[in-house]
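FAQ: What does the model actually see?

It sees only this:
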Amino acid sequence: MLDDHFFRGLRGPVGSGKSACCAIEMFRRSLAQEPNSEGIRKSRWAVVRNTNPQLRTTTIKTWLDWFPEHIWGKMLWHPPPYTHHIKKGDLDMEVIFLALDRPEDVKKLLSLELTGVWINEAREIPKQIVDACTMRVGRFPSMKDGGPTWYGVIADTNAPDEDHWWPVMAGEAPLPDHVSREEAMMLIKPDTWRFFTQPGGMVANIDNEGNVQNYQKNPLAENLSNLTPNYYPDIITGKTKSWIDVYVMNKLGSLSDGKPVYPMFDESVHIAKEPILPTPGIPIIVGLDFGLTPAAAFCQMVRGRWFVLHELVAQDMGIVRFAELLKIEMAQKFPGSQFIVYGDPAGDYRAQTDERTPFQILRQAGITAYVAPTNDPALRIEAVATPLNRMVDAQPGFLIDSRCNNLTKGFRGGYHYRRLQVSGNARHEEKPEKNNFSHVHDALQYAFCGGGEGRALTTGRTDTRPVNGRAIFDLFKKPNRLRRSTF
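And it is asked to produce this:
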């Protein structure tokens, strides 16, 4: 609140007072507005949330908790957008609440002349909307009336995913691989932007192997005096580590609304503590997924255990450029290694605009690729799920290098079955949702299928158990004389 930057972002755990801070900051800046010629301090604000139900049940409730209608004036509920016009003494403060789940609400935002904007739960808001908000502030009061004393955008959020615009602009996460050059330009932090990060609500106790043993209260957490003594210990009960990391520890991460494709994936078991080096003398199996978002997964199978060594993910790239990029990656990352490449069976068909297939283009680039044994999603998924459930000599049958960011995020829930909007019990799509994580996971599945995993599923099970054959007659007994049939 002591900072005057044009954009200020506040990231923290649940219960840390972020929303209350932003509401009070709006009120404080309105009181600090220089009065006009009539002695009135005028300001106009927009409060933005991603959906109307969340706007009404969370954001507006927080606002009215601090500025109740019986003291600060009635809220205008109809017609939308919801508006709270506060007039007290020399203060004239207009607050417009907007949900951005309808096109008309976005159009309304683009036509407003505002002093400032509060973006509530910014991890749900696209960067394009944030940029639109920055264009509408500093417009009220107009310069003929003295102009705004301060103007800008304030935002609060729980911890978003590492691929989100917030941590990238804050310098907390690298630029994602799938981001185009144009989008990358939008993620350069201006000098007038500043991000603040609150301490987590709890502290994790870690053992020598890096596993979480338990949690204890963080004495540096904010807003503890306004919470019940056991607020954080109570809310983490029965929650997953990923949920605790995002909502309590204030760590970057993702929580998928869908059903994870691989619920058996365990970070403490399946993610290597150190970088995985390729085993000499054993071929590296590469799985490929084609399209304009091509991806490759580099794997090895060593004595029944699968090791995922590396990933390559591209965005808006055709197969010709990707083939060259793949060839360079193979030479630089794994010099002197032997490769066996398996690709999407759909890549064996010609496109309408090119007589060559992706496999032919790969061969022209010097990469011999084979068609994966199957393209059945259920069989491909099972080919990866089986090693995840396997133990070999008391060691996990699947281990992935921690540097495979896209694959790891997919395993954590980014690669999922989309939840259907139906009443009653939760239902999900039968096939995984196509998103930024699905392409590299498809590539991983092609590698595992090509490497022989799930072969019994694709070719039929071969039963090698001994068979006891029983005859209904004795081969060494003299047969009875056949009786002639009469008609």
